[in-house]
């Protein structure tokens, strides 16, 4: 196979899990880094698990992650259609070909679409191969009588099947462990293990990138390639993405660890670019580089299979927070304000000052969902706590706080032009007039206005954001509370 062609073949059964997103991303990066093609194929033959709208959700997720297929539904390509339920005649034709060549057989057993139960002491688990060597006359009569059937793959009963995996090397499984799997169900629908082999071959897929959960199925796929006389693709089975629980235990990433889908993370306030960047590093490292922040073009340029790890990767939400924060810092103030606005609840006063407030928050939050908590004090002042006014470093006491706030109130009350520039000039002049250290002056004013030690912006910014009436009200109330301590 001269041209690199990869595919992402999701089932439309719900949201895109982080592991699925990583599979799609690696397949895309590998294809693009080799000037190849990336295919989106929808594997929708399991109708019982089909979720309405899931196909559009998959497309929208890939688009948001900037993973753009070269071929697929609504895009087209030389091997359309790219939705399996629209390719039924193809699967039937190849299944019948296997029957004719002696590599598959019709199974008339009742409920043979489902795995059968086997006695515990029997060595082989799965279908008992009752129809594997039926008399041709029996087969002919069943067909004439219209008896429903499935088509099963006729596995070798002895020997081994070996295939090479880029990450795991040669993998060998005894054929005695392989069930005569169903290829075509009674309703004519193909199973995953059959349809994906047919489609991968016909669509000229050169490299199959998927999770390690498919390793045990791969020998069945390899045998199908051999039965048809087709060239094998190159297999890359990715280690799973794990999550860490509060107790430190590691297990496969699930809802109990936090947000686990691309959509969940977007709703939690992460940027699509940051998610994609972080997911790229879950099991891959760029060669000879400690770089962590990548644009999509940089990922394409740096990506190679040699950088993949066969060890499981642990999803670290703290690391994602850091990376998302780095992306925030690189945004323009306007872009950050526009992107964050849908996550924020503002009163009328703050609404008119949102762009300024957003500029203060951009370097102080790691995800949009933190903003409401960060600015809540501007809408509703926290309960009074006299201990907050005591600051040994700046030599601030309750008594000193009363003195500073009383003096500051007179100056603040005189400000008519309530702009940040005028406020800054007034407070600067006031601080200089006290002949105290700047930190000593600002500490009680900051706590008096906000009710907390840490705020986005300093005293000048808080006064501007709160407005004159609200600022004076808060400081007068603070002064009364301090005097009653």
Distance between the termini: 82 Å
Give unreliable regions as ranges: 115-124
Average pLDDT level = 93
Sheet with most strands: 3 strands, antiparallel
Anisotropy-based shape: elongated
Give the tally of β-strands.
12
Q: Portion of residues in helices?
A: 40-55%
Total helical elements = 19
Based on secondary structure, the structural category is alpha/beta
Strand content: 5-15%
Q: Any idea what the radius of gyration is?
A: 32 Å
Give the strand order, joined by hyphens, for the main sheet: 3-4-7
Compact overview of the structure:
With 485 residues, this protein is α/β, with parallel strands linked by helices.
Write structural notes for this entry:
- This protein is an alpha/beta fold and 485 residues long.
- The chain is 42% helix and 11% strand.
- It has helices at residues 18-33, 54-64, 88-100, 136-144, 192-202, 218-228, 262-267, 272-280, 296-302, 317-330, 333-340, 348-351, 354-361, 371-379, 398-413, 420-434, 438-450, 459-466, 468-483; strands spanning 5-8, 37-40, 104-107, 150-153, 160-165, 169-174, 182-184, 207-211, 234-238, 241-244, 250-252, 313-315.
- It has a three-stranded antiparallel beta sheet with strand order 3-4-7. It has a three-stranded mixed beta sheet with strand order 11-10-12. A two-stranded parallel sheet has the order 1-2.
- Helix 15 (398-413) crosses helix 16 (420-434).
- The chain is elongated, with a radius of gyration of 32 Å.
- The termini are far apart.
């Amino acid at each position: 196979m001269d041209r690199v062609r990869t595919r992402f073949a999701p089932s439309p059964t719900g949201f895109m899990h982080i592991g699925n997103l990583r599979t799609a991303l690696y397949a895309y990066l590998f294809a693009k880094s080799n000037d190849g093609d990336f295919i989106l194929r929808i594997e929708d033959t399991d109708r019982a698990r089909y979720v309405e709208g899931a196909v559009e959700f998959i497309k929208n997720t890939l688009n948001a992650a900037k993973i753009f297929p070269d071929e697929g539904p609504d895009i087209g390509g030389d091997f359309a259609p790219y939705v399996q339920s629209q390719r039924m005649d193809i699967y039937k034709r190849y299944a019948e070909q296997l029957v004719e060549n002696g590599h598959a057989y019709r199974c008339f057993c009742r409920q043979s679409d489902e795995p059968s139960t086997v006695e515990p002491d029997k060595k082989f688990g799965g279908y008992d191969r009752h129809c594997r060597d039926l008399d041709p006359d029996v087969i002919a009569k069943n067909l004439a009588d219209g008896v429903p059937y499935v088509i099963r793959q006729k596995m070798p009963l002895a020997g081994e099947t070996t295939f090479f995996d880029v990450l795991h090397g040669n993998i060998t499984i005894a054929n005695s462990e392989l069930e005569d799997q169903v290829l075509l169900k009674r309703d004519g629908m193909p199973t995953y293990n059959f349809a994906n082999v047919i489609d991968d071959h016909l669509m000229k897929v050169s490299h199959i990138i998927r999770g390690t959960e498919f390793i045990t199925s791969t020998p069945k796929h390899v045998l199908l390639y051999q039965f048809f006389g087709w060239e094998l693709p190159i297999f890359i089975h990715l280690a799973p993405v794990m999550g860490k629980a509060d107790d430190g235990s590691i297990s496969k990433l699930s809802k109990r660890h936090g947000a686990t889908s691309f959509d969940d993370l977007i709703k939690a306030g992460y940027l699509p670019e940051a998610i994609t960047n972080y997911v790229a590093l879950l099991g891959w490292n760029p060669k000879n580089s400690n770089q962590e922040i990548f644009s999509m073009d940089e990922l394409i340029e740096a990506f190679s299979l040699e950088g993949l790890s066969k060890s499981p990767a642990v999803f670290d939400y703290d690391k994602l927070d850091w990376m998302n924060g780095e992306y925030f810092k690189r945004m323009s103030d306007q872009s950050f304000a526009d992107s964050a606005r849908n996550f924020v609840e503002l009163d009328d006063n703050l609404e008119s000052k949102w762009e300024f407030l957003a500029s203060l928050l951009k370097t102080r939050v790691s995800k949009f969902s933190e903003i409401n908590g960060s600015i809540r004090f501007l809408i509703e002042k926290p309960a009074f706590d006299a201990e907050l006014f005591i600051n040994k470093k700046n030599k601030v006491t309750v008594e000193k706080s009363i003195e500073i706030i009383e003096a500051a109130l007179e100056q603040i009350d005189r400000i008519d032009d309530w702009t940040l520039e005028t406020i800054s000039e007034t407070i600067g002049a006031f601080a200089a007039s006290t002949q105290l250290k700047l930190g000593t002056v600002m500490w009680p004013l900051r706590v008096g206005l906000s009710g907390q030690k840490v705020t986005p912006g300093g005293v000048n910014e808080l006064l501007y954001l709160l407005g004159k009436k609200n600022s004076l009200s808060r400081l007068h109330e603070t002064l009364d509370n301090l005097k009653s301590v």
